[in-house]
Amino acid sequence: MTTSPSIAGLAGTVAAPDAPVQKRKRPRVQNPWAIVAFVSPFALVFTLFYVIPIGYAVWQSLLVVEREGTFGEAREVFGGFAQYALVFQNAEFWSSVGRVFLFGVVQVPVMLGLALLFALLLDSPLLKGKKFFRLAFFVPYAVPGVIAAIMWGFLYSPNLSPFEAVTSQVDFLSSDLVLWSIANVVTWVFVGYNMLIIYSTLLAIPGDIYEAARLDGAGQARIAWSIKIPLIRPALVLTGVLSIIGTLQLLAEPQTFRAFSSAVTSSYTPNMTIYATSSIPNVSLAAAFSVVLALATFVLSFTFLRITRRKAAAS
Known about the structure:
Elements: H1 5-15, H2 32-61, E1 63-67, E2 74-78, H3 82-89, H4 91-123, H5 130-142, H6 145-156, H7 164-167, H8 178-203, H9 207-215, H10 220-231, H11 233-248, H12 252-257, H13 270-278, H14 283-314
Helix pairs in contact: 2-14, 3-14, 4-8, 4-11, 5-8, 6-8, 11-14, 13-14
């Protein structure tokens, strides 16, 4: 029987020993010192102003103060997790954490919703005078937080506000409303900042996508809902993470409002508790507060990222 050439060739190929596999060579770096030169400035600044302060705070939180006798010399010694035990026993600190959590649940969605709305308006061809509105929306962010809090504090004060007809009927500085008065200040300041991030992402979307949608009969509202918002999801996630971090770091506005309202105590927010504790001074306990707050910020931000990533994958 005659074997066809193709089958014979195949058989010979199978019978032939395996050819040695050549490993791919990794491209050599032409000048590794150039990489070191570019990375070193960032690595130095990152280490000096981020890694070392965090490490020092963690170490400081593990120290306790011991005193020899009633009037003896005080010295810091290693105390393990003694300061963290005090943190978890401190009801005022956890009350302040719950307060800013409630603050964030309400204020962050409102702020990001307004930022998204303003960004979509600026990107819409229906809006006239875009330069004016872009500047008007962003100007409040140029006002420092303390100055903004002082300005709004005067507007809320019944005896100082030019809107006395309103402030005499509604006490915006009472214990029931002062948290939301602070939320209004934060929203007023940071809406423009978040709007700018979202708007810059909208500008990066190719115009051909909008043109194709218009040819299919989609209006501006449909384009915004079905095209623009899904494509700017990364910007919305970024502003959400930044807002969560900023909420847990709330300090300047409530600290300023202490001059206007007795409802704002020295432990009204976690950062105010840390500031007041370090002023006693009890630096080790303040460091333990800071470490716990940093871990809580990381957990909340990471959880938010995981949830948004799963929703993006599902859609």
